[in-house]
Amino acid sequence: MLSKAVIEHVFEQYHSLELVDVLQKLVIKNGNHFTLSIAEDFDNMLESKTEQSDQYIIDWVLSLEDSKSVLARFLYVRSIVRKGRGYFPEAVNHLESLIKSVSQPEPFLLLHLIRLLVRMELFSEAASYLKQALSSSPHYSFYIKSEKIINKILLSGQFKSRKSIKLAILGSSTTSFLVPVIQAYCFRAGIHAHIYEGGYNSYRQEILDPQSGLHTFKPDAVAIILNHRDLALPPMNNEDIPINSAEELRNLWNVLQRQSPCHIVQVGFDTPSYSAWGTLEDTSDGGRARTIGKINSLLSKNLPAGVSFLDMNRVALHCGQNFHSSVDWYQNKQYPSLEALPVLAEYLDSHIRAAFGYTAKVLVLDLDNTLWGGVIGEDGLSGIKLGAPSAEGEAYLDLQQYAKELQLRGILLAVCSKNNHEDALLPFIEHDSMILKRDDIILFKANWQDKASNIKEIAQELSLGLDSIVFLDDNPLERAWVRSSLPDVIVPECGNTPWGMLTSLRQGKYFESVTLTEEDANRHKSYKSNLSRKEDESKHSTIEGFLTGLEMVAESGSVNDMVLSRVTQLINKTNQFNLTTRRYSQEQVRMMSESSEWGTWWFRLKDKFGDHGLIGVILVSKKVDVWHIDSFLMSCRVLGRKMERSMMSDVIRAAYNENVKTIVSEYIPTAKNSLVDNVYIELGFKQKEIENSFIYHIEPTNDYECGYIRSNDSITKD
Amino acid sequence: MNDNIKIRNVFREVFDDDEMIILDSTSSNDIEDWDSVAHIKLVLSLEQEFSIRLTIDEVASIKTVDDFKQSISRHLESVG
Fold first, then answer.
1. What is the pTM of this model?
2. Do A179 and A163 contact (CB within 8 A), yes or no?
3. Comparing C-alpha atoms, which of A328, A359, A338 is closest to residue A520?
4. Interval A561-578: pLDDT, tens
5. Could A48 and B1 be called an inter-chain contact, meaning their C-beta atoms sit closer than 8 Å?
């Protein structure tokens, strides 16, 4: 293995032709066994020689173009980059092929390519490599180096973000170093974050003063980052401290949301690693560690709408010793340490994704060497490793257990495996150790088709977007294939061991959720009966007969606290049947529901197969004589059963009863909602003749009805 | 000197300016973006590049590129 000392020695000892000769040998011998930092050192030496116009070296480096050695090709690329802009395209080609030839490219190597692409203003290509680099959770210094690059990509307008949010970071310690990291994590998730940093340790003033920078910024989300030092706890305390500290923060949340409706991520207090009184701090009632535990539990208990709690001790657990750095604290008032920031940002990002509805919904699993060790088609039922006594076998069980627990929370599980269907099913039916049963798997694709096509089918059959799918596979080739053919699918770089796969699944926090609704827990059942409904659908000869046969009953009501979290979830998650795709925070929805200028409806659908739960929302902005339909959306679970007509009939009849003259509606096209481009015409609205816009209107009547769905009038709008 | 090139490249990376010219006398007054946060970012990146750790005093007193060079070479000597 090449070392820095060797390189330095060679450059000191040899000159001109002799140096070239030695370097050539070094590169051939060590060309594929070196670290990036050694290669960069090497390159720095060459750069200095080039600046001294050492023609021997200049010619030698240019001769490395066709070398088989990775190191040589890297040095060649760097040298032509130095020659200037005209050489960039060639450098990009070389770097790309070099990166493809290594199995897991280092993020800092990718950064060389990303920087070039940005210089050439190829921003979307740069963005996709940057996402790849970020997916391997690089060291903190990566975020320093990528900060300006990310800003350039965001400013270019060529980055297609799923969402743009205004995020405020308030803290009792320095927050400046967190900004580039959280920016990068949001970027990785396709979110363009506009970030406001509160004044140093002035989170109270920012929240309490209605004229503060925070309130002027009008944040969509606010992170409040505090630490144990803020509490200034002595080893032993008086019993009132926990209640008082928690009360103060809860009161601040309230003030903040009244002034600026937003989602709040409250970071909990960490337990300090020091304890002068030792275990007494843990065991005595007023002990320091025990008091912090009490405060955290008071903070996280019965969280109000639109607030989530991030347990800092989880971040600490993840970082271990590196969580705290004395130098960072005393020198920069940075807490936790700089090295811990990527982990903290990962958690913050998962809360933001969850709060705004960008949570994955399906876990697609490979089988052989992913759910069990070995290949079922070759090793047979007794040959595969699953459960004790095999160490690996036990780890595969843990992975299955994790998937099962996700499923219990409403995450759908699907299988995508290159296998004979019967072979693949065998363990699910006959292996005693299997935790996952055939019934837990919503769709089972075991065939010889390529995996990208299978995953596409899974998305279509479940009526879900590709970006709500996470694909877990031990095989790097399959991962690369799915990643390149379906870039929206989330493919964790998970290695090929069961514990590696489990860790990457946990760390990615793709399925994070900040609230648990009844619908979540029943989702698997609901999709399941939906699939059998689809089968039923094909058995019925006419759609009318099928719809009548479903015995559908709809319920509706105006939005209240009981349904608030589910309604917000739908507003933020629904992409396809969504006429305007306007997103609102829980706070905003609550304010609408309490306002006389708004009409807010939720809808629920049941049929003979089961209860679909709350599946639709309509928000109406009411003016005298005219109602504007601000939002009209429906879960894809109930597509194709005229539910939209039943929903609209409730609104139209309500408008008729309030003597409204016209209902105006609009359709705002997005990449995902072309499904509904004709919905208003189908519902009997008339289109206004305005070019390039989709505005419709209808006159309220009292005989607008949906033939197939009976309304359950027991719940009416109050 | 190779170290000069390394230091220059770190500056170029942190400030994302490929053509940035760095002189020994260049100080935070000459580079608009060189504020206290950027200063720590430079410190961190240079520490990583040279596998050293500067002291709190050094970090506080460094004002110019030359100050960085002096501190870095002091640390490299004490290691080597």
1. 0.72
2. no
3. A359
4. 889 989 998 998 888 899
5. yes
